[in-house]
Amino acid sequence: MHRITLSCQQQQVAYSCCCNALSALQLHNIRKFVPHNTRLRPAYFIAVDHTQQTITWAIRGTKNISDVITDISGASTPLDGGRVHWGILQASKALLHEECGHLSSLTRSYPGYSVAIVGHSLGGGVAAMIAYVINTRVSLRRQFRCCPRISSISIAPPAVMSSGLAAASESWSSSVVYSHDPVPRLSPAAVVSLRNELLAVDWTEELRNTILEAEYTQAITAAINSAGYTTSAAAAQLQKLAAELLQSKHIQDLSATLNTVVYGRRGRPAAAAAVGDGSSFETALAGGSSGSSSSKSHSGSIAAGAT
Q1: pLDDT tens profile 51-107
Q2: Edge-to-edge strand list for the sheet holding 54-59
Q3: What is the model's pTM?
Q4: Of 150, 91, 141, 144, whose CA–CA distance to 116 is shortest?
Q5: 101: Cβ contacts below 8 Å, ≥ 6 apart
Q6: CA 254, 255, 257, 261 torsion-angle sign
């Protein structure tokens, strides 16, 4: 399945194009309109577009509680060696049961016309599933022998099928997804993956690192402010050091090298005394921590360049 991600402006352009493409449809072009939905069966209409030589099957997205039930019936079920959304599969079967005969009859009445199954949100998911089922079942596809192509276009569809089945659908199925819309990325597997990821985080360590980073920032700010007592080269090296060590969080590297850069040649500036109440930056940066670091030190080369 092809997936296109659009920015807000691109989405507006695409929406305008879709409206223009559908504007050729008149009331008499609509061959069937089912405005009411039920559980596991969304609303839809079928129309014949003579301008585009296309039979359009448009499936509505989520509107009421019956559609929501279809949406949340998202347990994955096996299909053709992959997994699919159970509720959308059932909705697709229901619509095919109702309309397969009517649709194939229209293709015989208009030989050479293609079939475009379109929809938004829930309707987009059902459209993609119907197109997959028709194109992969020989007995079904044979009913549409007069139709050269059966395809689907889905706007912001939910997660419908596993990656292998989606890849098999690329030649006839496309979807349009707006930026970071969560709906097309949400599935039971994604929820389980997120849960496992959150449980694997050491939140105590994350909190400690956040506090230490705030301490680093405070100490480095004071050190840079006091760098006027040193050479301009030392101040530049200090800024470079701050950027590197804020990423690595090497406490010993940071404290040792700041001592070398700031105090190495001119002694301790009075302005830097506010950083801590000890004789070096170690007191302020380590915060009394007795932990040690086995990480490779960056301080040697940086300090050499600074002095």
Answers
A1: 899 999 999 999 999 999 998 888 889 999 999 999 999 999 999 999 999 999 999
A2: 2-6, 173-178, 150-155, 114-120, 54-59, 44-49, 30-34
A3: 0.61
A4: 150
A5: none
A6: positive
